Amino acid sequence: MVLSQAIERRVQALISMRGYKVLSREDGDGESYLTVETRDGKKLLMWALETDETLSNEHVNRLSGRIEECGFDGGIIIGASRYAESARNEARKRGIELVSTDFPILNLFEHELVPKHEILTPEEREEVLRRYRIKPYQMPYIKASDPVARAIGAKPGDVLRIIRKSPTAGRYVSYRYVIEG
User: Fold this and answer.
1) Model confidence at 118: pLDDT above 90
2) Which CATH number fits domain 5-99: 1.10.860.10, 3.40.1350.10, 3.40.50.9100, 2.40.110.10?
């Protein structure tokens, strides 16, 4: 059994929005494992899962074991159903991201009204803070639960660069500090 069209589109949207490079793909019975490389060179294991049952700690532990076995830097579970609260807590402890059914199945950044968002590297972040002589908490903020922040994988403590088109300035750059929420 291959993945449903909705799960497959969600996987492709996630890869596209975050700029991941797919290194390999392994399809199984109602599941797919994808090895991807992030922009900063980290290797992640994505597990797309087609199941009607609530995803539990067992699923998180299974992916975590495979991550440790293969030496990946992190993991993402893309499920077609709900996640148990205990699974959310376990995934948070292990640094595994859970992508739920409310994740967009389209690339948000293809819409003309959605500006480009990108997560700054630690060096870029320090440069911005130094240039403007501010602390992160003095910046405008964006919640980690914001759809765009979730789409690009922003975590609390990250700084986002937002590039908008402007009729007068041509290009307008602003920055947002990601907070819990």
Assistant:
1) yes
2) 3.40.1350.10
